[in-house]
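Hi,

I'm pasting everything inline rather than attaching a file, because the server keeps stripping attachments. The sequence lines come first, and each chain or strand is labelled.
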Amino acid sequence: MSTIRPRSAAGYWLALPAAAWMLAVVVVPIVLLVWVSFWGGRAFSTASPLTFDNYARFFANQTYLKLVLGTIVHTATLMVLTGVLGYCIAYFLVMKVRSPGWRLALFLAFIIPFWTSTLIRAIAWVPFLGVNGVINQTLMFAGATQSPIEAFLYSHTGITMAQVSLYTMMAAGPVVYMLNSIPPQLREAAMTLKAPPFVVFRRIVFPLTLPGVVIGQVLVFLNVMSDFATVATIGGNKHALLSNLVLLFYEGSQIRAASVVAVLLMLCMLAGVVVALRVVDIRRLGA
Amino acid sequence: MGGKLGLRLTGWVLGTLTLVFLAYQWLPIFTLALLSFSGPTGGTTFPMNGTSFHWYEELWRASVMNDFKPPLLRSTLLAIACSATTIVLSVMAAQAMRGRFRGNGWFFYLMLLGLMAPGILVGFGFAIMMRLLGVELSWDTTTFLVQVSWTLPFGFLTMLAVFNRFDARIEEAALTLGASRLTAFRRITLPLVLPGVIGAGLFGFSLSYDEYARSMFTTGPELTLPLAVMAQLDRQLTPEIYAVGTATTFFSLIAITLFTVAFWAMRRSTAVRRS
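And the predicted assembly:
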């Protein structure tokens, strides 16, 4: 017995506002995007004939195809970087930090920036990366280089550096959760049976945290794929990913082209999530 | 023993890595704050050419073009509205999930979709839909609608987690003693899950306050704070941007602290009542 009768009509009424809201604001617009991407003609009207021309035009352009490839490579790089870094940090926080006070302090130090604006945090990288930026000043002061390196601001390296700082916690968070849920007896048992530490990690700990790793990777993947703001802030106008292209077309009032890119972006993301779900069954996580 | 030494070595290596990453994550934020206090002739990087409140004064005296006060007000109002809506809808939705209505699996995935769907696609799609419907874009109507679709799933998942750990026997006792379901919910359930409600509210506030992608497509000529910051960045990079960044970060940290204090206070009061 609880305050809601199982399988009663009340459940429908309570869920209705949220469901209607999500349908109207998320599902319908996305379906609409797919539809618009097939519009022929020039006018913005629902009477437009449907064609594949928009897609044909996109795929005929070498620059755009390179951009798709570049986006995928960039995202994969970030997944590897944040994945390795995030796992190391998560492992340290859960397994190596013994004192509860320290653990809380470190945990807060990681989580607080997460609650502030990603946009501001991306902007915060600008004074670091410029030709006269902090990194170059430090390098020149240390005598590592004579002249400033121009490879940071408005460059791919700069974007990657900022995004690693923005998204590593997304990769680490789910791993922390999974590491915490491993009963200590499992590791003790393995060690009693004389397994060396690395074997314990490889055969016991890592497989048990794999769902966390995959979820973290999905989060990083989805966020980096759609993060046009950091790219625009740090990359200037010189660098673009697929998501910047959506914006570029949109600002140029090329709604059809923008929709095509948006749909492709969506397909890439769907493919990524489907692959991840094949590795890990999300529904079994709660159990 | 070799193994022990190896374990300690791993600990040191991982610890160093963790601290280095912490510095990596925090240094830009501190630098931003530091540079916002640079002198009137200070540029966008070091040297600071003295320390002053010059850029904050500029911010306060701003002309119409780069006045950040109205956007700040809009963003704050919007965040409060999103927070309140998220609280109401997510409590309703999570309570509905407890009733295991038919199709609750689909409902769950619908909410997850809101979490997964990137802002740029939702915002863009919604803007097209509004154009088809002939609705004028505005921060207090269209932006509000889109932002709630982003904050609601977070609140919903928070409430689901809270209800999962909720001891339903307490409700049962109230119902056995003759309370109606509504009374039991209002007098027993709601006070007990209040810390979770605050958490959902915090998600609503913070996510809406910082949202950029969804707002960009759906806000009319009157910008919200992140949009105004980005517009200023496109025009000219001055330490004024750093001052805005520092001020808004400070503001959102205060909001989070308030929510956290409320959270602890609620949890303590429910814990005391329970014992």
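Chain A is about 70% helix and 0% strand.

If the labels don't parse on your end, tell me and I'll reformat.
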